[in-house]
Design goal:
Blueprint (H helix, E strand, L loop, with lengths): L1 H20 L5 H19 L3 H6 L10 E6 L4 E6 L2 E9 L3 E5 L40 H9 L12 E8 L2 E7 L8 E3 L4 H14 L24 H5 L16 H8 L3 H6 L15 H12 L5 H13 L8 E2 L13 E4 H12 L3 E2 L2 E2 L3 H7 L15 E2 L13 E5 L3 E6 L4 E7 L8 H10 L4
Antiparallel strand pairs: 1-2, 2-3, 3-4, 5-6, 5-15, 7-9, 8-9, 10-11, 12-13, 13-14, 14-15
Helix pairs in contact: 2-7, 4-13, 5-9
């Protein structure tokens, strides 16, 4: 009996040690992700806790979390076996923010002042229902089948598409939603937010208020080799700065999103490993640093908050959009923009028309060419805060296609040669969802 007890004690010690060095360090990530996800999905899109846990949080290890929603206080908490409890608070206008124990929730905060576009125009240039338009160049039966193929059939949970929308020649020619989602559902774009962040520099450049080719205005870099890094290098993810982005483990990106008070600082404080423009490296930290750089272009925090909406988002009628902030009030430019599928398509349409929105030039045409031109060392896959198909990642899609791309397969595809914008929102990325086949089938329904 004593031997058995000793073996059991030894086994328990081994389990505790294993847990301590493997799972325990991830508890901040698990409870941080789940509390933030539940607060955002529930308070921004009115989803139930059960639907969020079965959908958005249906990721390995996240099911270890126990979650609670406080309706009156407008916050969500999560913990794992009672350990590492995290809280995410919701504030109207700036969404949900994952906070630490030192965060003062009673402190007043600023929200963007918005003037939402209101007109009697049909979608996409307004919010009225689109008019029926029939094109002789569209095979509607083929298109309908292509869109249906993007969704799971009853009883399956493989493709996990939530919505698909297709614009052709400024007209809605295809739209479908999974059960539980509608045209009014606000969906998180994840890294599609990077494309919005980059676009704000395009607006400033058109206003002649910023030069992306000058050294980035980061005071902390002025006495070391990083002083030569330009904003252009940052936009291209080609700064040479150290960064690790691997969401399967604790890394720079997860520390930034789930532990940092000021998300921009994580990238700002990294050393240079390479000379600028010689080593492409995808970095969400870079996009948040860009957001912080944008903030410094304005005299007040209020002006910074307003600018994203007044100069772009509200101007093109993306009225549903909410971009969430970190604890210091910076927009999380890497990851946290929410919008309806229709509003995401408006952003794509702006780029399809080379920066022109229904007659108003919001971006220079040269800016659109800039973001859709491959950056050095990216093998044709990346431009400036946009992904590209120049390298043929999707072999059956046009090579002039460029697109916004986010975690779990959030996509806004812009295809100038076919006058198309295609949006797909869901819970599966390239490993589970065949985007090449999807694009092949949708584009095949449209004749030039």
């Amino acid at each position: 009996m004593k031997k058995i007890l000793k073996l059991l004690v030894l086994l328990l010690i081994i389990i505790i040690i294993y847990f301590r060095f493997t799972t325990y360090p991830k508890l901040d990530l698990i409870s941080g992700f789940t509390s933030k996800s539940i607060a955002s999905c529930h308070f921004i899109d009115n989803r139930s806790q059960e639907s969020i846990e079965k959908g958005d949080n249906d990721i390995p290890l996240l099911d270890l979390a126990t979650n609670k929603i406080n309706e009156e206080g407008k916050f969500a908490t999560s913990s794992v076996y009672g350990l590492k409890e995290r809280k995410a608070i919701y504030r109207e206008g700036i969404g949900a923010t994952l906070i630490n124990d030192n965060f003062d929730i009673s402190k007043p905060y600023l929200v963007p002042k918005r003037i939402k576009l209101a007109n009697n125009l049909p979608f996409p240039y307004g919010d009225k229902e689109p008019k029926d338009t029939v094109f002789s160049t569209v095979d509607y039966a083929k298109l309908k089948k292509a869109i249906a193929n993007a969704f799971d059939v009853a009883g399956e949970k493989n493709k996990r598409t939530r919505s698909v929308l297709v614009l052709y020649k400024d007209k809605l020619i295809g739209e479908k939603y999974e059960t539980g989602f509608t045209k009014d559902s606000k969906l998180l774009g994840w890294s599609m937010t990077k494309s919005i962040t980059g676009t704000m520099f395009g607006v400033l450049q058109r206003q002649k208020k910023f030069d992306i080719y000058k050294p980035a205005p980061v005071a902390e870099w002025q006495n070391d080799e990083r002083k030569i890094i330009t904003t252009n290098d940052l936009l291209h993810m080609n700064s040479g700065l150290e960064w690790v982005e691997n969401y399967n483990t604790i890394c720079d990106a997860t520390i930034m999103l789930f532990e940092s008070e000021d998300m921009a600082k994580v990238q700002l404080e990294k050393p240079a490993l390479y000379k600028p423009d010689t080593h492409w490296n995808y970095s969400s930290g870079t996009s948040n640093l860009l957001s912080a750089i944008l903030r410094k272009q304005f005299k007040t925090h209020q002006e910074y908050l307003d600018f994203w909406y007044s100069a772009l988002i509200d101007k093109i009628g993306m009225n549903s959009t909410v971009i969430e902030t970190d604890m210091v009030g910076n927009y999380v430019g890497s990851s946290y923009a929410w919008a309806t599928t229709r509003d995401w398509s408006k952003f794509g349409l702006l780029y399809l028309h080379k920066g022109n929105w229904n007659g108003e030039q919001i971006l220079d045409e040269s800016w659109v060419k800039y973001v859709s031109t491959p950056t050095n060392t990216s093998k044709g896959d990346y431009g400036a805060q946009f992904w590209l198909n120049a390298g043929g990642k999707y072999k059956d899609a046009p090579r002039d296609m460029f697109y916004c791309s986010g975690f779990q397969g959030q996509k806004v595809f812009i295809i100038p040669s076919l006058d198309l914008v295609i949006v797909r929102m869901g819970l599966t990325d390239d490993l589970e969802f065949d985007f090449n086949l999807f694009l092949k089938e949708v584009t095949a329904s449209v004749r030039k």
